[in-house]
Amino acid sequence: MSVFLKTASHSHNERIARIIWAAHMLFYLTNTQSHNRQPQDTKNNGECDDRDTNEPSDNETDYETERAVILSGSRTPIRRKFLDCIAQLLSPCKGWNGVTATAIREGEDGVEVDVARNDGFFSRGDRADSAVITYCTRLEGYLAGCDEGSTEVTATSPEEFELKAINFARRRVDYWIEDLREVLKHHLNSTKSTDGLPQSSPRQEDANTWMTIKDLILQSCPNQCATRYRVLVVQQAYKCVNTPEIQQTLSDNFGAQIATKLWTKLNFLARPLADCRLLASIVTREPHFRNCKIVPIPPKPKTTLEPKYMIEIFTAWEQIGLESPPKCVIQKLDRFNKEFKTTCAEAFSLHAEMQLVLHYEEKLAPPPTLDYFGCSKKTCLLCEIVLDTLPSPVSTRGRHGVCYPAWGVPNSGADTIQLAVQRLETSLVDRIGGFLGGLMHPRRKGQAVNTMQSGFVSDLSRLTLEELQKRENDVQSFKSKQAVHRNELMIR
Ligand SMILES: [Zn+2]
């Protein structure tokens, strides 16, 4: 064991408890605000308010851009796209449960792809697991069967696996059909007639393609042939996103803003078919990828705190070693005081990315040959911190920067995991400290800028001398409260 680890003598269990406490506190203070550090990511902040679903921010690239990546022929981007496509094809639904992550081991004659899912493959031992195994085998068969020309398959005659892929993702597809229908109904009156266009012009053709999917979406799904309807919609959406000129048609019809919205939704709808075709295109360029073994990994134990770590929020705050918070923070945290103890007592599953990390640390499979995990969704803040602190940092398609407290902590005696977890704790405590610093010194550049709650700041900036005195008293009362909690804890 390294000297560094010896000096940090907190027990691993205690550290795990502090991470869970700190993650909850950071979440209570900043909610679903993004903690992204790079300014270009902040544009997604407003879209990250749905903690369990795929937001448009998870899919900022469209099919055209993805194809360009593959056609560029660059080695690493192609492998990354390969992993992302497989992750997406194996993610059956929107929401936390269905999030998947993939990693690759590449040999001369073939590749192995490990895949993990948030809710854990084989964790229930029901029919769904055997269905996944069959689906993986079919995907392997699809990749094996892709050869020159298969990417030219028309949207009206998808391969057998492509139909399976659409069916596998039916809950996701149905969601986007409904979503697109709502938007279309809302903006129906904006649709302009295309009668003035010459019948044989490419623009008329584009307009017709768009009108076909629009009519399909607006008609209700016939119950008895839902599967067929779904396939038709996905095929038509794929045809649209494969014709970039349709963006212009949409813009002409609805204006630029709504056109962008519709285009994003069409990309989501086309996803199962687009992923299959992207994979087909990739294996044409990397023929040894046809020999692909897909391995769903078994789930990892959930994180559960020992009863002695289920404590009051202000006691936890003190044990983490945080300075006394200002009144507005006390008030904010106090609102969560009741639920804190019970919430922290829940069993938290490991996110798919962390399952993969642990899988390799436990030497249950040889390590991947690429420092990249494919993901069906952007990586959360806590996973991002851990992936960044590994000896060989692992990147993903991007991060949304939101702190989700229901996060299982990788637990292992391996030095790598112990160090990563130790750094995660430090990082979370620093972030809470940075948040407090931002409240106390709102103008201090770079501190808590994108996590600040405007109400807190205005509370502080309006303080009079008298109020400052009152706040000081509040801090004193908080300290005595802490002392009481400490005593209670010792008595137990
Ligand atoms: Zn995560």
List keywords for this structure.
single chain; 19 helices; disordered N terminus; binds zinc ion; OTT_1508_deam-like
Question: What are the SSEs and their pairings?
Answer:
Layout: H1 3-7, H2 12-30, H3 63-72, H4 75-89, E1 100-106, E2 111-117, H5 127-145, H6 160-168, H7 170-187, H8 202-218, H9 226-241, H10 246-254, H11 256-285, E3 292-296, H12 313-320, H13 327-334, H14 337-344, H15 352-361, E4 374-375, H16 381-389, H17 415-440, H18 454-461, H19 465-491
Parallel strand pairs: 2-3
Antiparallel strand pairs: 1-2, 1-4
Region (Disordered): 35-65
Biased composition (Basic and acidic residues): 38-54
Uncertain runs are: 1-9, 37-57, 152-157, 445-469, 486-492
Question: What is the C-alpha radius of gyration, as a whole number of Å?
Answer: 26 Å
Q: Counting H and I runs of at least 4 residues, what is the number of helices?
A: 19
Query: Major sheet: order of its strands?
Result: 3-2-1-4
How do the SSEs run, as a string of H and E? HHHHEEHHHHHHHEHHHHEHHHH
**Structural class determined from secondary elements:** mainly alpha
Mean pLDDT: 80
User: What is the helical fraction, as a range of percent?
Assistant: 55-70%
Bin the strand percentage.
under 5%
- The global form is globular
Which ligands, by name, code or SMILES, are bound? zinc ion
The tally of strands reads: 4
Pfam families: OTT_1508_deam
